[in-house]
Amino acid sequence: MIEKNNKKISEKKDADAIYIHIPFCDKKCEYCDFCTFVRMEKEYRKYTDYLIKEIRMYPKIKYDTIYFGGGTPSLLPVAMISEILDELDWSENAEITLELNPTDMTFEKLKKFRKIGINRLSIGIQSFQDHVLKFIGRQHSSDDAINVYKMAREAGFCNITVDLMFGIPNQSLEDLQRDLNILQELKPENVSIYSLIWEEGTVFWSKLQKGILSEIDQDLEALMYEKIIDFFEKNGYCQYEISNFARIDDEDKDVEINEIKKFEDLRKLQKNAGRHNLKYWRNQKFIGVGMSAASYFDNNRYSNIRTFEKYYNLIDEKNLPIDKNTIEIVDEVESEKLKKMLGLRLIQEGIEYFEDEKIEKLIENGLLEKFIIEKDNFINKKNKEFEKNECFDKNLAKNFYETRIRLTKKGMLLANNVFVEFI
């Protein structure tokens, strides 16, 4: 059990995902509020050593997903990433993701990452338009982004996710369309595309307060989002989360998204989805290590502290480097609330339907919709019932189907209005 003095931790092994925060960057992007530091190469060695010490404080777990985020994890030497991986045990088909930027990568380094076990890349491109990249303070060009993507393919990576942004003040619908056209050519397995968020404390926020920048028109932002949804729907992608789209492989294109009746079919369409982030949205347990990393472990949610000195000192004292002010105990009521709120981000899965006046109102207003799907264990149980009864009672079949609810297209555009009902 986690305690506020950080001295105890459960030996439970109810998490199978780990997030590893690497806080180093070449340059701080003007919109970014993540815990990152620039030009700190001298800190790489010590930070890696302490990351390993923190990992050792948790129970030994066989992980299903491992995610190196940041910051820019690919700035670390391959040998240091390898040392971290050596501390971890993972399943045979584990998803092991590394975030990278287009400017810090060579073909040789990509091949080395592949060799040590990285099997999925998350490339922070944000835009393929040079004037947009310059505006948000990115160092790479459109050509850099396309080249690193192609290099990754040549290096053997067959699972790549691309990060893009929309709703940027100097970005037009035509700029967005050009970005989408390039994606159509590249065909990454996954695309994460988020609208710009004005975070307090960032350069962008400061410029907004001073009147140097202004937020994009809300109607234009909504048009951009609708264009994104329509594009991916027409180009063989499944929108499995509000801002995430998974490429549907050729062998699975016979499954019609709007005609899904089984979870089995749903899994086919989401085969290229990011498994690690799906665990977050399904309210599953995970461990986070490194400065500022969040965890959901042993019925507690908490985040690590954000300064090197405190991070190192707490670990030296044999304590987890948790910011005690962030510890939240998640009881059954809170867990159920989180499950509903996070689960509604999943566009295809949604959540199990339950009777509630608020839910009925959201359905009536066209923000949520009901759908029926066959449960995972239906086939096996049905076959057993056939063996027993020689026929299968239709009333009994109801036990193997479930009614669920999910966001409509209108609901996606007004998602915050829906989520607030679950707070």
List keywords for this structure.
alpha/beta, 423 residues, 17 strands, 9-stranded mixed sheet, 3-stranded antiparallel sheet
Explain this structure to me?
- This protein is α/β, with parallel strands linked by helices and 423 residues long.
- The chain contains 17 helices and 17 strands.
- The protein has a 9-stranded mixed β-sheet, with helices on both faces.
- α1 (44-57) packs parallel to α2 (78-86), α2 packs parallel to α3 and α6 runs parallel beside α8.
Structure summarized in a few sentences:
The protein has 17 helices and 17 strands. With 423 residues, the chain is of the alpha/beta class. Strands 9-10-8-7-6-5-4-1-11 form a nine-stranded mixed β-sheet, with helices on both faces.
**Uncertain parts:** 378-387
- Rounded to an integer in angstroms, the radius of gyration calculated over CA atoms is 23 Å
Work out the strand percent.
15-25%
- What's the total helix number? 17
The strands making up the biggest β-sheet line up spatially as 9-10-8-7-6-5-4-1-11
Report the span from N to C terminus: 26 Å
Helix content: 25-40%
Helical/strand content category: alpha/beta
The average pLDDT value, as a whole number, equals: 88
Shape label: globular
Overall number of strands: 17
**Major sheet:** 9 strands, mixed
